[in-house]
Amino acid sequence: MSPLAHILSLPVQAYRLLLSPWIGHGCRFQPTCSAYTLEALERHGGLRGSALALRRIARCNPWGGHGYDPVPGADPQFDATHRCDAHRKDDPDA
């Protein structure tokens, strides 16, 4: 994990240790938003990992999605069947 990613992961780890037990499990996604954030920071670094985490947290609302949503690159089979298809639909050459 890069130094920036490590620093950015500290508030998430504090949340998981101090607040999450009091709030309870309410995340609409699997893995949870905090687990997703830590994995995104570890896998993609501070800047891109933070952007992925913010995008995920913004989708965690009553009108957003739900279900299995791994970090890009964590589940190649999921990426191949879900994320690549979305790009092909928008590509006029496909």
Protein architecture, described:
With 94 residues, this protein is mainly alpha-helical. It has one domain (25-90). The chain is 67% helix and 4% strand. The chain is built from three helices and two strands. A two-stranded parallel ribbon has the order 1-2. The chain is globular, with a radius of gyration of 15 Å. This is Putative membrane protein insertion efficiency factor.
Write the layout of secondary structure elements.
Layout: H1 3-23, E1 29-30, H2 33-59, E2 67-68, H3 76-90
Parallel strand pairs: 1-2
Helix pairs in contact: 1-2
Function: Could be involved in insertion of integral membrane proteins into the membrane.
InterPro entries: Membr_insert_effic_factor_YidD
Protein name: Putative membrane protein insertion efficiency factor
Features:
94 residues, mainly alpha, two-stranded parallel sheet, 2 strands, 4% strand, cell membrane, Putative membrane protein insertion efficiency factor, Membr_insert_effic_factor_YidD, membrane
Low-confidence stretches: 86-94
Q: Counting H and I runs of at least 4 residues, what is the number of helices?
A: 3
Q: Give the topology string: H per helix, E per strand.
A: HEHEH
Shape: globular
Strand order of the largest sheet: 1-2
Distance between the termini: 36 Å
How many strands?
2
Helix content: 55-70%
* Helix vs. strand class: mainly alpha
In brief, what are we looking at here?
Its main location: membrane. This protein has 3 helices and 2 strands; from the N terminus they run αβαβα. By secondary structure, it is mainly alpha-helical.
